[in-house]
Amino acid sequence: MSDMNGTGWALAKRPVGMPEMDDFKTVNVSAPAPKEGEIQVRNSWMSVDPYMRGRMYDRESYVPPFQIGELLTGGAVGHVQASAHPDYSEGDLIVSMAGWRDVWTGKPQENMVNKVPQTGLPESALLGIAGMPGLTAYAGILRVADLKEGDTVFVSGAAGAVGSTVVQIAKIKNCTVIGSAGGSEKCNLVKELGADHVIDYKAHDSYEALLGALKKAAPKGIDVYFDNVGGDHLQAAIECARPMGRFAICGMISQYNATDVQPGPNNIIQVVGKQLTLKGFIVSTYADMQPQFLKDMATWIQNGDMKFEETVMEGIEMAPEAFLGLFQGRNKGKMLVKLA
Amino acid sequence: MSDMNGTGWALAKRPVGMPEMDDFKTVNVSAPAPKEGEIQVRNSWMSVDPYMRGRMYDRESYVPPFQIGELLTGGAVGHVQASAHPDYSEGDLIVSMAGWRDVWTGKPQENMVNKVPQTGLPESALLGIAGMPGLTAYAGILRVADLKEGDTVFVSGAAGAVGSTVVQIAKIKNCTVIGSAGGSEKCNLVKELGADHVIDYKAHDSYEALLGALKKAAPKGIDVYFDNVGGDHLQAAIECARPMGRFAICGMISQYNATDVQPGPNNIIQVVGKQLTLKGFIVSTYADMQPQFLKDMATWIQNGDMKFEETVMEGIEMAPEAFLGLFQGRNKGKMLVKLA
Predict the structure, then answer these.
(1) Which of A103, A293, B173, B256 has its CA 20 to 30 A from that of B314?
(2) Are residues A115 and A265 in contact, defined by beta-carbon separation less than 8 angstroms?
(3) Residues lower than pLDDT 50 in chain A
(4) Are B263 and A262 within 8 A, CB to CB?
(5) Residue A249 in contact with partner chain B when CB distance is under 8 A
(6) Does B264 touch chain A (CB under 8 A)?
(7) Domains (ranges, CATH) in chain B?
(8) Does B287 touch chain A (CB under 8 A)?
């Protein structure tokens, strides 16, 4: 057992609007040999996710805000280097919330550590398709949106980590799927994943154009909307919803960096006449679905029904750039940073 | 059996914005002696309801639009004058959708007729507390909003036919209730019905003032919002909602007469982080609750737990004025027209 040193990231200041590189600063990280109850870990992968933007505001939310100068946190995969905890041994593969750094020492329970059994999946999948974004997609489309066979489903952000998984689950359940994404490369990906119709929202850059494209793709309307984007997408989905439509509201990335107040959907009155259900959700509420999720996901991946795309940046020094890339639409599928 | 003649109302033209008297015109109604399968009815009461405004637009909706020059329809209570239908006899008390007229002859099934057993309730109650608005309140608060004992409940339009019933059901279920209404007279009524806090929205005529009043009334936030009003009320409710809050979206009377597009709630992103459910509904979807509703309502009225207020205008010639009164806030409780 020996001390390790490494690098981590903290907020230098709170971003205003779109985050920028100088909102972040590096911090030296020391990962000493573990004391009783601790483990020493070298992270191999870390995750950047849109929800992290919310924690950069100083406001009450479902997760507490990041503090200036303190190490950021997030999903990470790592290997135990040394253990002074009875449940962990050198070489164990773990997922934790101790991301945004390459090495760390600490108590497993303080870092939301889970030991990972052998799954045959690559390690990076534990942060994507078989991790938090995968479960978000699974719980959101199956339970929150109460997906039924034959539904017409609209998914925004369909090339992202969550959206691309939603598209595929809906296809597995024999639904008609319309996915929206920005740019032809991403739209091709969504199409390859099985979507019946793809809308390039960058080629439809007014609300009316987006609405027209959605109406064309779903002339009889949509039963389910899985919202990753908010804004015009949400409004168009309300406009095209069929009676009793179900909306799983997972995120609104179009609004995360807004510095002024964003107007809500101007057609929300349709929620009454169409008897729509709009249901916001956070993946942690659906933790009970985790075992079935892993089982289904393993089967689907094995059968070739579930593909996953990753966009990888290499090295801890790239972490902020990977994060900023989420809001620039630079990722296809899961955005990751490879650390070792 | 003899022919009867009377008066009914039709649209003279489609209202633009707030309806006006000259959007309506009287029509002579003949109610001849019934032919086979028909009944001849004299209406004693008719209902005017906010939802009727929606049917005056020429657009697809959950109920088809009224046609210019054709008799309007709506809830009515009447007495069978003569019957050529085996299930009905002279003197039967019925509810139907053949309102907006004082006499009529027709087939029961074409006019959504239900024969009413002796309930001990006054006839007018069949159009209010024990009728469609009562069931709307009952189904909306108990099933759509999934009310739980101890919830903090916010009800807008709390002095109206539906809202005043919601307030009382929530009090029967041991909830803390905040009701909003316009003007001190209505607010006093809401208080008398048992609301713990009352907000006079006319005395808080900016969004910020309304929000401040709601925060003061519910410093720990609200679990349930029953929306009759939309607009600022909905936005304030989202702002004050606790995690997992449930919204029954029953109507948005603030928007029914709008001639331009109304902005949606600018804080709808909170639906995600707070995991809110916004669920629009129409009473007919919950028809299965009717028997239990009537049972509960009879018990509650008998016990003195459920009071109801009516605002009555007299004579078929007053029907449009009663309807317009709904949007001028002239009703406490159910707005009715007494016909006989």
Answers:
(1) B256
(2) no
(3) none
(4) no
(5) yes
(6) yes
(7) 4-127+308-338 (3.90.180.10), 132-284 (3.40.50.720)
(8) no
